[in-house]
Each structure stands twice: as C-alpha cells, then as structure tokens.
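Section 3.1: Structural characterization of target chains.
Under the original work plan, the team committed to producing a structural model for every single-chain target entering the pipeline before any wet-lab resources were allocated. The record below documents one such target. The sequence was received from the expression subgroup and is listed exactly as submitted; it comprises 483 residues.
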Amino acid sequence: MRNLTLLTDFYELTMMQAYYHAEMTTGRKQLAAFDMFYRENPCGNGYAVAAGLAQLIEYINNLHFNEEDVAYLRSTGAFGETFLEFLKTFRFTGDIHAVPEGTVVFPGEPLIRVTGTLIEGQLIETAMLNIINHQSLIATKAARVCWAAAGDRVLEFGLRRAQGPDAGLYGARAAMIGGCAATSNVLAGQLFDVPVRGTHAHSWIMSFDTELEAFRYYANLYPQACILLVDTYDTLRSGVPNAIQIFKEMREKGVNLSQYGIRLDSGDLAYLSKMARQMLDEAGFHDAFISASNDLDEYLIAELKAQGAQISVWGVGTHLITSKENPAFGGVYKLAALSAKGQPWEPKIKISEDPVKVTNPGVKKIFRLYDADTGKMKADLITLADETIDDTNDLTIFDPMATWKRMTLKAGTYTVRELLMPVFEKGKCVYPEYTVTEIQKYAWDEQNTLWEEHKRLVRPQTMPVDLSQKLYNLKQSMIMNAR
C-alpha cells in the first residue's frame, strides 16, 4: 500500500500549521464539517456515477507522515519543529460519510461528508478530490458509452492512451463500475479481479507471409477464443473470406466454436459490419460475433447502431479512459460548519456573485425519493443532519432556485432512502469491502432507477435536487446577514 500522505497541495500543509499554532496559542480546538460535491454533470450527462471510495479508504487508512516525509517538509524551510513533531504522530481520527460507490448522484449534493479536526479535514482535501474526481468521471463516461451500446458488451481498451499508469489502472476500475464487461488492462484484472480481454494486433498478421497463415496459427493456439482482426489488408476481399476459411477448418476438426468472430478496426464500420455479417451468415456462421474498435465514443456507437451496424462488442479506448470530451469532473470541497469541541455546530457559508457557487451551510444528509409504484427516482432532498422524513406523511418539495416550482408527494406514493453511509467512525473504517463486480451490479441497479429521459446522451432531463425548508431558510438568512 502506497503512502500518499504528501499527495496534497502545499497550501493544505501551511494551513495545517496555522491551525496548529492557533490551537496552541488560543487553546481552542475546532471541529469542522466539510462537504465534497460537484456543480455540473460531466459530458452533458443527466447524472454522474460516484466512484473511487475504495481507494479513498486505502489512503485514509495509510495516512501518516514517515521520517522521510518530515525531513522533506523540514527542507522546505516553511515549517517549525513543533509542528513537524506533531506530524510524526498524526493520524486521521474523524468521521467520514459517503454515498456508496456506484451510486447515481447529481450536482450540489454532498458525495462525501468529513467531520473531524480542522487540521485533518484540511489535509485530506486534495487527495480526496484527486481520487473521487477521476474515478467518478470515468465511471460516468463508461455509463454513457454502455447506455449507447444498448445491451451490447463494451470493452475498455484505453490503457495505452491513459495519462499515465495510475490513470490507466484506476480508470479501468472505474470503467468496470460504469458498466464495461471487461478491460484490456492485465494489472487491473489482477488487482481488481475483473475480466480481461484482447485479441491480436495488425503486427501479428504482418509477421506472417500470408494473412491466412497468421489466422490459422492463431486459431490453433486459441480455438476457444478465436477473434480474428480482418482489416490488415482488405476487409471484405481478404480478411473476412480468410476468417471464414479458418472457421470452416475449425468446424471440420470438430472444434466447439463457442467464442469466435471477427474484429473491425478501420473503415466504415456500419457498411463493413453489415457486409461481413452477410458473408458470415451465408457461410453458416450465424453465431460468429462482430466486434469493433477505432476511436469509438458514445455518439459514434449510437449513430452506428441507428445505421444498422451489425456489431455486438465495442472496444472503446481513448475517448473512454481520458473522458476526452470532458477531461475533468469538477468536484469541490467546502467548509460547511465549525464547532468548538463540545459545542453545537455553527453553520458556515461561502457567498459568491455566481448563485451556483453559494454553498449549502451546516451538517447535512441526503434523502432520495422514489416513486412507490415504479421504483424510479423522483428527486433528491438535502436536509440538515437532525431532520427526518416520514413517508407515511405528505411531503412538499420545491426548487431552491425557483421556489414556485413545487411538488407534493402524497403519503404512500413515495419511498425514502438515506444516501450518506458511515465509512469512518473516530478514525476507524466501518465500511464493508465490496468487489468491483458487486459495485458494478449496484451501479447498474442504480441507473435502472433513472427515467430514460435522464439517460439520453443529448440534453437529458435534470433530476430535481431540492433543499428542505429548514435548510433553505438557514441558507437565505445567512446570505442576508452576510450582505
């Protein structure tokens, strides 16, 4: 397990030292509540998929300053010896609540709530944002791609185009959570116990005297997983006919052709796949599948399917692993409340000329409201931590930016679920360990609670994220007092 304690911005450490000295000189040890949230769905999507919590847990569990860390900080000349001595025994002792990995989430609601000392809450900001922003971005992109594929298998093929080993590794993990069936990343397969897939490159074909010879050798070596790349020389006049010849030879030998087919990696994929399908069917290979790669994204996949492309497996690389259209998630981490130890929480608010950047004050939680008949989401409601919702009573919710937009949910027509779950309590992890496959299934179930209008690729409907009346009133009074 890597020690990522210094994976932070320098100003986090200088603020920590300032907090430390303020505590030493005033004797007041402040507790803080921080929220991690985001303001806008990535890729123009109607939702995001939260991911990265397992890596955040690893980071918190291993959070400590070793001798080398302290020596390096001393060398910067910015830190005093008393603070450096304090760092030697530093451990996270606070509480963390978070939405489970794979949860469908929306702008403005806290994905993670941290409560603890100001010092420890400040330190973990940068690493938390780095981990959660990246994996949530890729999981969301993968969910879009898989939705466009409409039930076809999507394979994550982006390792060589990722921005470094960690982005490739944890991007593959996030892509699996978002819905991919497998990855080409072998290390991800080993570490996260997820399926790995791959065929061969054009160099394999080119290393033989003939395409047919290359296909034959490969088929003999991998008869139970024979996927042949058919576009090295001429897809329809050479590649597909030679693949058909190999499949005939295998069938004549009595090979059980359970997993076999062809891969297209260039050209007009709609036209080539339809012609290849016709050729395979005429030869009696109706169950041979056609896979495709070549700079695919969700828009191209949706367009190819609309054109009747005969493709059932999609290998998606660069656009997925980098989220090329939208390369940053934009999560932020803001102070929401302070407390002198043993005293009630004092809500804090950040004011901005941009209304979307005005934060929600206080220690909060999130309730998700579902239609009782369909199980589909109706809205999310952010409340203060001491509030509850009784679904045996009517509930009126309203848009906090346009308060005249109101909806009353009648008792018995809706159900309620609280989203923020305990992850750390007094510095100890209390969150269960889930496999990536388990998280993927949960993420899929989560997406199935969305209405189709919220999942479309272009201009999706937005899910209401409302504030309770109590939280709304608190926010408005704090804004007026600040002005």
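The chain has 16 helices and 21 strands.
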